[in-house]
Automatic annotation (TrEMBL):
This is HTH araC/xylS-type domain-containing protein. Keywords: DNA-binding, Transcription, Transcription regulation. GO terms for molecular function: DNA-binding transcription factor activity; sequence-specific DNA binding. SMART domains: HTH_ARAC (SM00342).
Length: 406
């Protein structure tokens, strides 16, 4: 079959059990065709024209399907039809929800958008008709659409998010697909594997994420608020990862400090995609810290205590004299011993750790460069920028731009 025949078959398959619509746009974002009867309403919500730069930039940097979550938590998947390196069309499936949403929650979503009463009522009625598609199933549709357009086989975990470059992590709600006993047994084993990777500091974790996203359709309860469900799910995951990191050798002080940081960041999330970003960043952070701990098995208690102190007080102003006083060592002894075992001065180590923390904040939060500079207690924004560029070769702003393109 040719591409058009493949696409027609694909459209028919995804619409068999769900009202999942298909949209085709030109490279200039002009709507060419859709099977959606309410095209004007949904096209306005999706705001594809406003996303032109984002979608175009993503195509230039990657070309894999792009997951977009709009202001009403509806999920869309964009895939690209191309000839060589040139985009010939943009194919979109959606919208869909990942979990059931109560009318009360839909009212909350539509509040604050200056909508007339009649328009808001019509919008909520349309939102109630949006199909609920399990995360794993929806992302597999995206991979299938990519195959129909390009002939290239990819995994569902290869899809990219519009926001803060994360891997798909299932936080969806509610489809009844298979007996809970069988599905939960598989999920339990997959989660054990993920926690084992944290405990071992195993950097080959992407396969574990893929396994969980394939097994899980998300939380099966209907609490009516998908965002709250997502937060609760990630909150549990943060706690489990912190315990696994302690078993792997990370100091309890560091693990609990990180846990508190991520829980606070999670509670500040405004969208499900933000929760996904926090979940992935948290998991990667714990895993890499354990990996680093296990790589330094020959470090003395003195130097390890010094590193732990720096990590625990990364948001405070610290220097060699302060650390020496707190750990009851002389400045000269601690400086020489640290340099000998770590191959770097304490001040450079502090700078590098603060830059690593800054990279994390730039990836996972919307805080400004100045705010991050102040949080990490750099003496000025220019000092922060100079330190960041010295370690990474990029300015903080440029680093954030590069990460968001991934």
């Amino acid at each position: 079959m040719d591409t058009e025949q493949n696409l027609e078959l694909f459209r028919n398959l995804i619409s068999l059990n769900r009202n999942l619509y298909y949209w085709k746009y030109s490279p200039e974002m002009e709507l060419l065709w859709t099977n959606c009867p309410s095209r004007r309403l949904y096209s306005t919500i999706f705001g594809l024209r406003d996303r032109r730069q984002t979608i175009s930039g993503h195509f230039q940097s990657s070309g894999v399907p792009l997951i977009i979550i709009d202001i009403f938590e509806m999920v869309w998947i964009c895939a690209f039809e191309k000839q060589g390196e040139v985009c010939r069309g943009i194919h979109v499936i959606g919208p869909a929800f990942h979990t059931d949403a109560s009318r009360e929650y839909l009212n909350q979503l539509t509040a604050g958008h200056n909508l007339s009463i009649n328009y808001k009522k019509a919008l909520i009625e349309c939102l109630e008709m949006i199909p609920v598609v399990p995360t794993s199933t929806y992302y597999e549709y995206g991979a299938m659409l990519h195959y129909c357009l390009s002939g290239e086989r990819i995994c569902s975990s290869d899809l990219a998010y519009q926001t803060e470059g994360t891997l798909p992590v299932s936080v969806s709600g509610a489809a009844k697909e298979e007996p809970l006993t069988h599905q939960h047994a598989g999920i339990w084993q997959a989660e054990l594997n993920m926690l084992k990777m944290v405990e071992e500091g195993n950097l080959n974790y992407k396969a574990a994420f893929q396994q969980v996203s394939q097994l899980s359709s998300g939380i099966k309860v209907r609490l009516g608020n998908p965002l709250r469900q997502a937060k609760d799910s990630v909150l549990i995951f943060v706690t489990l990862c912190s315990r696994a990191a302690i078993r792997g050798g990370l100091s309890p002080e560091n693990a609990y400090t990180l846990q508190d940081l991520y829980i606070q960041t999670l509670e500040d999330c405004k969208t499900i995609s933000d929760c996904m970003a926090v979940s992935h960043t948290m998991y990667e952070d714990f895993l890499k810290r354990v990996h680093k701990c296990r790589q330094k098995t020959d470090v003395s208690v003195c130097v390890k205590s010094c590193c732990d102190y720096i990590d625990m007080h990364i948001y405070e102003k610290t220097d060699l004299q302060m650390i020496a006083d707190r750990l009851n060592y002389t400045r000269y002894y601690l400086s020489r011993k640290f340099q000998k075992e770590m191959g770097i001065s304490i001040n450079d180590y502090i700078r590098n750790r603060k830059v690593e923390e800054a990279k994390l904040l730039l990836r996972s939060t919307s805080q400004s460069v100045l705010e991050i500079s102040n949080i990490l207690n750099f003496c000025s924004r220019s000092h922060f920028t100079d330190s960041f560029r010295k370690v990474t070769g990029l300015s903080p702003s440029r680093y954030r731009e590069e990460e968001q393109r991934l």
